[in-house]
Amino acid sequence: QVRLVESGGGSVQTGGSLRLSCAASGDTDMDDCMAWFRQVPGNEREGVAVVTRTNTVDYANFAKGRFTISRDVAERTIYLQMSNLKPEDTAMYYCALRRSCYYLSLARNYFTYWGQGTQVTVST
Question: How many CB atoms lie under 10 A from the CB of residue 36?
């Protein structure tokens, strides 16, 4: 079993920055990948960014140029540095993990394990 715990959410004004963290524990493996998703009530959960153990990354179009995903393999932690935040970035942000990850994907059903989420609110 894998446990994921997110932190770092909060409230910022438009143009501000936040850094989210997600710590993994339990039975991860050498080929896993981790990702950030977000969800607004009433909408589908959408992928934000994904990273492998070798730091190969991919981003959703809305995240490119503003968000940066990174990974500390030794600490089993990933980060999402978000800058130039906009009100439409307001959402619950979730961390996800897939073991035996052989290609990058931001599809929700590609990931097996999920954290409880951390709220990000961007005000005008």
Answer: 27
pLDDT of 62-121, one tens digit each? 999 999 999 998 889 999 999 999 999 999 999 999 998 989 999 999 999 999 999 999
Q: Which residue has the tokens 């999920």?
A: 114
Q: Judge contact between 120 and 66, C-beta under 8 A.
A: no
Q: Is the dihedral of CA 98, 120, 56, 27 positive or negative?
A: negative
Q: Which of 95, 123, 96 is nearest to 110 (CA)?
A: 96
Structure tokens belonging to residue 77: 């932690």
Tokens of 107: 């599809």
Amino acid 92: pLDDT? 98
CA–CA distance, 13 with 81 (Å, rounded to integer): 15
Measure the CA–CA gap between 115 and 8, rounded to whole angstroms: 13
